[in-house]
Amino acid sequence: MQGRQVSQRVLFDTIDLESLIPDDHLLRRIDTTIDFDFIYEVTRDLYCADNGRNSIDPVLFFRMQLISYPYGMKSDRELCREVHLNLAYRWLCRLSLHETH
């Protein structure tokens, strides 16, 4: 007898991205090695405190750039698309499944 998958959309689902990333994954090693908080201090003087729109979080931008180099992404559009699709990339960038970047 041939099986057939029956799929039904789940209204609410709880997913822990942390548990989906293997302990030996390259991005997990990067995350445990680098404390990204220094980026706020380094970039503080590059932003106007009272004029203009809010920027992308500089730590998010830096995390995304760290993804692009080892995985050979040559364009920002490709990087954004891959961060949207790849759970490990989302995890490193601290993006939930519902957030955009």
How would you characterize the overall build of this protein?
- The protein has 101 residues and is an all-alpha fold.
- It has a domain at 17-48 and 56-92.
- 45% of the residues lie in helices and 0% in strands.
- Helix 4 crosses helix 5.
- The termini are far apart.
Question: How many H/I helices?
Answer: 6
Low-confidence stretches: none
Could you tell me the radius of gyration in angstroms? 17 Å
Overall pLDDT metric: 90
Gross geometry: elongated
Order of helices and strands: HHHHHH
Distance between the termini: 46 Å
Record field, number of beta strands: 0
The percent range for helix content is: 40-55%
Specify the structural class. Answer: mainly alpha
SS strand fraction? under 5%
Largest sheet, strands/sense/barrel: none
Using brief descriptors, characterize the structure shown.
mainly alpha; 101 residues; 6 helices; elongated
Task: Draw up the topology in text.
Elements: H1 17-20, H2 26-33, H3 38-43, H4 58-68, H5 76-85, H6 87-92
In short:
It is built from six helices and no strands. It is an all-alpha fold and 101 residues long.
